[in-house]
Amino acid sequence: MYPRDFFDTYWRTEIRNEIFVAMPFHQEFTPIWELAIRPAIELVSAIQLRARRVDVSTLTGSVLISILDGIAHSRLILADISVAREGKWQGQRNGNVMYEIGLAHAIRQSTEILLIRSDDEPLNFDVGHIIVHRYDRDQLDNERANISRLISDLLKQIEQEKSLKVQRAIDFLDSYMLKYLSKFATSGPLAGPDPSTRTISAISTQAALSRLQQLGIIRSTPLPDGQTAALTLTSFGSAVVKALGL
């Protein structure tokens, strides 16, 4: 599947408690994954995170979808862009990993991407302006704690930025939007308005719900009958409702 088609069709605002890891699958990187990166993710104390890694040695259609899904719905993307010492990519940075980073940079915030490397070789021009954290692959026990700290720091920064976005969204709410957010908070999923109803109240309601969707506060989920849809809060919407004290 072409990435643009995936993000237009399947991307949702719900984020899973996992970190998507882009790194080579060559055996020289196995100790780095098993002794440093995966346990570093599991060490993060703020929330329970799962490390997710997809084998991109062969980019088939199903593998690409797994990559796109991980990039779109993980809390963070962690990429190891270290130069390979052996194998197919010896002396180079893994091309598939660099491709995953490009996808991540296209749709995620800069604070949601963590780049690490174990070499001092010149960086490719396309990541030369981005902070890349250095680790020592001969001191993986020590680096495990360092990588975990980097992840924790980024998560804190994301929460700070999220608070600013929540407040900005609140600033755009009108009385109709607040009314329906209050209903969501107390009643849960609601049925969408009947589009055939053309009263002033119904039109105002439809406009308010449309604006809530545009702000990413609610989403529409089709019901089994195929005729109606349930309106539910997104994770961002839940943060807005919580900030409002509803």
Account of the 3D structure:
The strands form two sheets. This protein has a five-stranded parallel beta sheet, with helices on both faces. Helix 5 packs across helix 8. The longest helix has 32 residues, at 140-171. It is α/β, with parallel strands linked by helices and 246 residues long. A hairpin with a 6-residue loop joins strand 7 and strand 8 (229-233). The chain contains eight helices and eight strands. The mean pLDDT is 86. Helix content is 48%, strand content 15%. It has two domains: 3-164, Rossmann fold (3-Layer(aba) Sandwich); 172-244, Winged helix-like DNA-binding domain superfamily/Winged helix DNA-binding domain (Arc Repressor Mutant, subunit A).
List the helices and strands and how they pair.
Layout: H1 3-9, E1 16-22, H2 30-43, E2 50-53, H3 61-73, E3 74-80, H4 95-107, E4 113-117, E5 132-134, H5 140-171, H6 175-187, E6 190-191, H7 200-214, E7 218-222, E8 229-233, H8 235-244
Helix pairs in contact: 2-5, 3-4, 5-8
Protein traits:
single chain, 246 residues, alpha/beta, Rossmann fold, Arc Repressor Mutant, subunit A, 5-stranded parallel beta sheet, 3-stranded antiparallel beta sheet
